[in-house]
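Homework help thread (please don't just give me the answer)

Our assignment gives two proteins as sequence + structure token strings and asks us to describe the second one. The first is just a warm-up. Here they are:
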Amino acid sequence: MNRVLLEKWNDTVCVDDFVYFLGDLSCVENVKDIDYWLKRLSGNIVFINGDQESSKNIEFLDNVIVDVGDNHFCLVHNPEDAPEDFDGWIIHAHSQSHDLEKHPFIDRERKTINVSTELTDYRPISFAELVEIISWADSIYSEPDYLATYEVPVVTQD
């Protein structure tokens, strides 16, 4: 599985791209195993603290706030850990696809988007894609609907 994740990551992310990794880097006991795979990932990576982090070579942040155009994003592993006063979209990777009713791909009412790898075809998605997803959800629903689904388009680097 690690090879599939690596391939999809590197097919999507260029060497100079800036990427936020939203936690749960690895469940392995051996830190050397993590470093082995990290050296093979493309991009400049900012790591958000998840539930299962164990590396001496990586600094993990609790969350990152990013503005893209008119959109205000909080990047965090668990949406419950976003700042209480945050009023934008919470982008998270918590719970993977184990509980899609609680953590669906997009929840317009709670303004969350779950970008766990199982829901994004095991690849990172860009801010441009997030903005497109929000626009898509807003265009088809007049009221919040937490069970909206969206097919993330496959994007490869040139």
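The one we have to describe:
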Amino acid sequence: MIAAVAVFVGVALCPTLLQMRDVGLIEYIQRQQDPNVELPVLSSLEQCGNAPFVMPTSGWTGILYGDSIFGTRNHSGLDIFGLEGNGVTPVYAAYDGYLTRRPEWISAIIIRHEDPLAPGRQIWTYYTHMADAQGNSYIIDQIPPGTFELPVKQGTLLGYQGDYNGQTWRSIDTHLHFSIVRGDGNGSFLNETDIANTLDPSPYLGMRLNTICGDRPPTCRPDFLCPGLTTQSNANSSTLP
């Protein structure tokens, strides 16, 4: 069963997340890059069984890992579409780690983790489209551009879904793009836009999220790997036909 209990730790309870933001969430926590700053955290989010990650946001998971974009199977993560419009659907950290937001990043953050499924390996979770089409960011003010290695807990509020798509010609609907990125072996991450540099999120979230056998809509299941993909090392992009 999926657990979904919205209880805040260290933050005064308000009727809804949207109201909480509107009445001064940004002012509640000091804006600083102090690693001891207390960020808003949900104690429980949607999580499948013993899967290590929580779902980073809510909505319709419309595009799976490896789905076709412009005719090729190259989608490097999940696209999760909130139905309430821009700046409303919250986005959370999927797992404990260390958050970075590069100075030039308007709508994106990335979090470094010790891989819970492969001890000794570093992975990164990437979250983007958290701004409106004009580039007004929905990332909370406590995570300004230039943030580096800020400790965060699973369930930390990061921002809200938006429809920012950079300087490209293609407009998009409000959603979160979420992916799991391989480390480069030198303490940083590889290029997320290349699916070969990413991992199938299925075992981390406990659902079939790979285009080869994905459930639509996704559902929790113990047999989250596609038949023939027996290990996480085989569940990455190299197996896509």
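TA reply:
I won't write it for you, but here's a hint about the kind of observation we're looking for: The first strand starts at residue 8 and ends at 9.
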